[in-house]
Design brief:
The protein is α/β, with parallel strands linked by helices and 320 residues long. Helix content is 45%, strand content 17%. Helix 3 packs antiparallel against helix 4.
Length: 320
């Protein structure tokens, strides 16, 4: 996935072992040394690994300076138009992502930790990181929105303390407003549901105000028409491939129609993910719909070896 390479005045860097702020500092150091090509490479790695970070927005502005210094006015102008011409966070996220990836679409795979053995959670995260996972997906369940109870703030804090991977916090709760500000310091993206939740717009605005990516999850029974009014406010639309609450369920094929519906309305202005039922038998048909992210639980977390996980990650990317 992300390479380890030598740059300018820095030694070989493994970006997966650095936070967004640390990577930004490396790029800034290269710029001050006038190593503009090296700095651009660092900032692009930052945007690829941490697409939602606060540091990524500043990295885009630094990239403009780099490309101007390198004489590449076309790239500089393209980024400038993106920053100045798009009003919504979702549009900026999509455009910045395309600038980094060009015409090549990169599928992000997050490990959903719901099915993990909690007694082995630390070692599992370490194994997933070594295998090259793109991020961690943590479900917080209150026993009301869904019948299950899972994870809590202390667990999220502990995971953040041992991992520098991007963290998505998925709030399967009846009142997300009570949780947003307390989990935001430890999350890169917060996803809520609209079903049975009051003040959806207020919750989405609050997430944005915390400086993290905004996500809206969509249950199997929920029609896109009923939540379309909220989608312009989000960076990520997460389509549930199973009934939320428990891991290890079979994928619901009708979920694919929701991908097509969102794309028909918004094009590539927001990222689309699938959560639940993703495995070696379903990933190809999901990837045929050109999704951006997969949240994968049992299929990944039940594997205990780095080698086995790497092979499964390759399988999940089939059809991309």
């Amino acid at each position: 996935m992300l390479a380890v390479f030598a740059i300018g005045c820095s030694r070989d860097i493994n970006f997966r072992e650095r936070t967004a702020e640390e990577i930004f500092s490396l790029g800034d150091k290269e710029m001050k040394a006038k190593h503009y090509a090296a700095a651009a490479k660092v900032f692009e790695e930052l945007k690829s690994l941490y697409p939602y970070s606060k540091a990524t927005a500043e990295a885009s502005r630094k990239l403009i300076e780099c490309y101007v210094a390198m004489g590449d006015s076309n790239k500089a102008e393209a980024i400038c138009k993106t920053i100045e011409g798009e009003n919504s966070a979702s549009s900026q996220s999509s455009c910045l992502r395309k600038l980094v990836l060009g015409k090549e679409r990169k599928l992000r795979i997050e490990a959903s930790l719901l099915s993990c053995d909690l007694l082995e959670l630390g070692s599992k995260i370490d194994t997933l990181t070594k295998a090259g996972i793109d991020g961690l997906h943590i479900d917080i369940m209150d026993g009301h929105f869904v019948s299950n109870i899972a994870f809590g703030l202390d667990v999220v804090k502990q995971i953040r303390g041992v991992s520098k991977l991007p963290i998505t916090v998925h709030l399967l709760v009846s009142d997300p407003l009570k949780f947003i500000d307390v989990v935001a310091p430890y999350a890169d993206c917060i996803i809520i549901h609209s079903e049975g939740v009051a003040n959806v717009s207020e919750a989405l605005k609050k997430i944005k105000g915390e400086g993290v990516a905004v996500g809206l999850a969509i249950n199997p029974a929920t029609e896109i028409d009923s939540i379309e009014k909220y989608l312009h406010m989000v960076d990520v639309a997460l389509i549930m491939g199973v009934q939320p609450g428990y891991g290890g369920q079979k994928f619901i094929p009708s979920s694919l129609k929701k991908i097509r519906k969102i794309k028909s309305i918004f094009g590539d202005k927001i990222l689309i993910g699938i959560d639940g039922g993703v495995n070696d038998k379903t990933s190809s048909v999901i990837n045929n719909e050109k999704v951006d992210e997969l949240a994968v639980g049992s299929y990944l977390v039940k594997e205990n070896t780095v080698r086995g996980l790497k092979e499964k990650l390759k399988i999940l990317c089939r059809g991309v």
